[in-house]
Amino acid sequence: MLGMSQSAHAYAYLRPSAVLDGEAGRRLALETSGGTTPLGAAAHPRFFAGFLAEPAPAAAALLAVADVAAARYYQPQLRASLDPVVTANGDRLRFESFSGCCGVYARLDVLAAGLDGDEIGHGTTNVDVNNPLREALTRIGPAEPLHLAVGPDALEVTTFDGPVVEKKVPLPERWLRGFAETQVTAAGFDLRAELPGPEAVRFLRSLPRGGGRAGARVAQWVVPAGRTLRPTTRPVPGAVCLPGPERLAALQRVLRHARALRVYGPPVAGSGPAASAWEVELPGMRLTLTLSPDASRGFSGEGGVLGALATVAAEQDADLVAALLAWEPRVEIAELAEQSGLTAARVRAALTRLGTAGQIGYDVAEAAYFHRQLPYDARRAEAANPRLKAARALVAAGAVRLEEGGATAVVTVDDHVQRVRADAAGAVGCTCLWWAKYRGGRGPCKHVLAVGMVREARTQDGTVGGVREETAR
């Protein structure tokens, strides 16, 4: 984990973010770094200026997102600090962060009902959350008005006066891959439970707050029971995995403002741990924490995007679908399919690929994708994935042989032979140790990826990995 590649990424701000006192009340000035807007790259984009309808809950929720960005829930002795990402979608502001261990994804959606001011812009950038700002946010009272400015004023954008505050932080490749994997994981979630405010507070306050690695060893489960949740020893139908309950500690900040708790998760399959999402409804806002299947397992290694990265068709479709995205707060599969002329399955694969460049997120509350624009491309995520690189090497070496009928393939690596089979429903399995251990739960193995590449090439032009089929046999 510690050996993963990383690069230095610079965040440049005109000045530190701050809470300022003035004649009209307090002003929360969130400074932006370089970002992307509908007009292209901008050094310090401005997305919103106006009042927060509920200052105290908003301040607490922003602190919760910052808490996750600064935390490591696995190996907590190693510090982490990444500035949250903010996306303006025209009708809301979204603040997102990842924990340093990549196992917790936090998002605060400040909806139109939570904002009172100018029109909300479109674009994505990072916002500076520094220690003095955190201290000031803790002092925001419920009765005082709070003005929010995301980005500098127009006059300040055009001047070079004043200091530029620059932060250089290590940006692991797994952090980028985590953004890609969470949208694939969350798209498989359904609403499993909803607790009213008092029950939500009671349940969340009962959870342990300590650190440690207990969540990495034991998968805990909860099941709806009337208006609350109760623990269960096994994943019965309707249960939700609570992997490492101490990783929900950031929600403690907003409990006194909580109106409801909604819990999302995938259908129960087997007894292994699973990811889940925990959404607290606040006045005009939603704060959601998504947990990886256990504390030692970051989202970056889940492998949900590998199938889309491995296909040429998804790469081509992604260019078409990207041209149709317009910073929409809700990206509808059916609408994109109609506009692009692609099938719904191909649109999903294209969105998955775009997610590896940070262009797509998923909102479990609305069961819909949304558009953001991070300064990465899919090739960076592809180049950093060892399974994908290994699969391409197998194809290039001619290690894949499709057998008659195409349902079975043989992959020869040195003196080892692995067999990849597809059943009548299209489910694929492999005889390798990776598949025996995870059963596809962490994405396809390199052998399944390689066979998929060969099958796609065969379908497209009658070749196998660039070689005529009859030659490859």
TrEMBL record:
Entries under PROSITE patterns matching the protein: ZF_SWIM
Domain of life the protein comes from: Bacteria
Keyword flag Acyltransferase: no
Database matches in InterPro entries: WH-like_DNA-bd_sf (IPR036388), Znf_SWIM (IPR007527)
Name of the protein described by the UniProt record: SWIM zinc finger domain-containing protein
Lineage: Bacteria, Bacillati, Actinomycetota, Actinomycetes, Kitasatosporales
Keywords: Metal-binding, Zinc, Zinc-finger
Signal sequence segment: none
Species of provenance: Kitasatospora putterlickiae
Entries under Pfam families matching the protein: SWIM
Annotated SWIM-type domain residues: 418-456
Keyword RNA-binding (UniProt): no
